[in-house]
């Protein structure tokens, strides 16, 4: 770990601990309303991420208990789709969780810096996130805060992070008594705004928003503060933009306001795996332009301009590149020098004849991950016979 890497993750503040559970803290990965995530080095030299809950929340015994429950639930999720939990405990009265550290760039940062994803990469990311949701739902969890900031484009494929914590927040009266919705503005489903029961269909809806954002560079409901986004979710018609098949149809189904009519994450995975292929190399190496415009709260018609990164409510300001959230335990938010490169892609620009490898390799990885997620669907059914 060099000094430059520490600088990119953020230096420790004067009041930060210097060690947690025998792990030396190297820098800050991110901070949010509930806690701070640190980059740390274990005694064997391995880099890990440690999420430390703020003291004010740690004083709520109910919240601390739910946090422990969520850590236990996170251990049940297949490690191929998220950051594996390595340990947890309490330091100076504050709960913490240790996860593997996964270098990569968030989908939010990728789109903010380089624009919408090219079709082949978009298909792979959509498939990878659907596989992750399939595994998360199979473990009996609902993410509740799926957004571009919580999808890490790692060298092993997309990883979905920071699930379970939103559930702990959602059930804590100390954090919801002000009547505020838990999660990030715009990355809710309509039933969450209405206060209806939360089911896996919530994650499917936000998967649709996320794929539209990745494919067009903007949120299908535009951007705005919490009240504006809540109104649009209830009254506006989403504008997912022009997406390649089959994503256009799948996203339209995922954004159905009726959760009963949305496909499951497993159905999305099956549809995407059946159509995954290595597309032809694009004619241009430049980034795809990000369309401007936000739907009007009442009609959904485009009005105004702005960076879609503002919809990622890590700061809630809606300005500039998204800041690192406390849930970013598995990523390095270093600004990349080029677009996200898939596993095995060389740092140098390939010749034209080799360009399709940037699609073949990640799709191969994602198909393997998809097969693992499919096992979560098929094996329990076989054992039940």
Automatic annotation (TrEMBL):
Keywords: ATP-binding, Kinase, Membrane, Nucleotide-binding, Serine/threonine-protein kinase, Transferase, Transmembrane, Transmembrane helix. Residues 277-351 are annotated as: Disordered. Residues 23-281 form the Protein kinase domain. CDD domains: STKc_PknB_like (cd14014). The keyword Transmembrane helix applies. Residues 297-316, 325-339 have a biased composition (Low complexity). It comes from the Bacteria. It holds the Pfam family Pkinase. ATP binds at residue 51. The chain crosses the membrane at residues 359-383. One of its GO terms (molecular function) is ATP binding. This is Serine/threonine protein kinase. The lineage of its organism: Bacteria, Bacillati, Actinomycetota, Actinomycetes, Streptosporangiales.
């Amino acid at each position: 770990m060099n000094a430059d890497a520490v600088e990119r993750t953020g230096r420790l503040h004067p009041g930060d601990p210097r060690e947690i559970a025998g792990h030396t803290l190297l820098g800050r990965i991110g901070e949010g309303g509930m806690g701070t995530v640190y980059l740390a080095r274990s005694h064997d030299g391995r880099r890990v991420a440690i999420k430390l809950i703020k003291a004010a929340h740690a004083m709520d015994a109910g919240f601390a208990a739910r946090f422990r429950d969520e850590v236990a639930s996170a251990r049940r999720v297949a490690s191929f789709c998220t950051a594996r939990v390595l340990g947890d405990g309490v330091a100076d009265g504050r709960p913490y969780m240790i996860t593997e550290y996964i270098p990569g760039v968030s989908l939010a940062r990728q789109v903010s810096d380089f624009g919408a994803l090219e079709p082949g990469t978009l298909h792979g990311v959509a498939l990878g996130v659907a596989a992750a949701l399939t595994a998360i739902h199979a473990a009996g969890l609902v993410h509740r805060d799926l957004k571009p900031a919580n999808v890490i484009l790692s060298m092993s494929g997309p990883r979905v992070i920071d699930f379970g914590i939103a559930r702990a927040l959602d059930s804590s009266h100390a954090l919801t008594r002000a009547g505020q919705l838990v999660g990030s503005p715009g990355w809710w489903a309509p039933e969450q705004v209405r206060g209806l029961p939360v089911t896996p269909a919530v994650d499917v809806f936000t998967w649709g928003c996320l794929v539209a954002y990745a494919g067009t560079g903007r949120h299908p409901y535009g951007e705005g503060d919490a009240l504006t986004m809540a109104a649009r979710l209830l009254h506006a018609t989403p504008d997912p933009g022009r997406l390649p098949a089959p994503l256009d149809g799948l996203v339209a189904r995922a954004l159905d306001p009726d959760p009963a009519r949305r496909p499951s994450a497993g159905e999305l995975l099956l549809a995407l795996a059946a159509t995954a292929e290595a597309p032809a190399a694009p004619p241009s190496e430049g980034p795809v332009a990000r369309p401007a415009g936000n739907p009007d709260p009442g009609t959904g018609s485009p009005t105004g301009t702005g960076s879609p990164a503002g919809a990622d409510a890590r700061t809630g300001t809606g300005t500039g590149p998204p800041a690192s959230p406390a849930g970013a335990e598995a990523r390095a938010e270093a600004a990349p020098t080029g677009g996200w490169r898939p596993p095995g892609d060389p740092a140098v620009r390939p010749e034209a004849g080799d360009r399709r490898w940037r699609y073949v390799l990640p799709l191969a990885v994602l198909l393997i991950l998809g097969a693992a997620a499919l096992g979560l669907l098929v094996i329990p059914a076989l054992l039940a016979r």
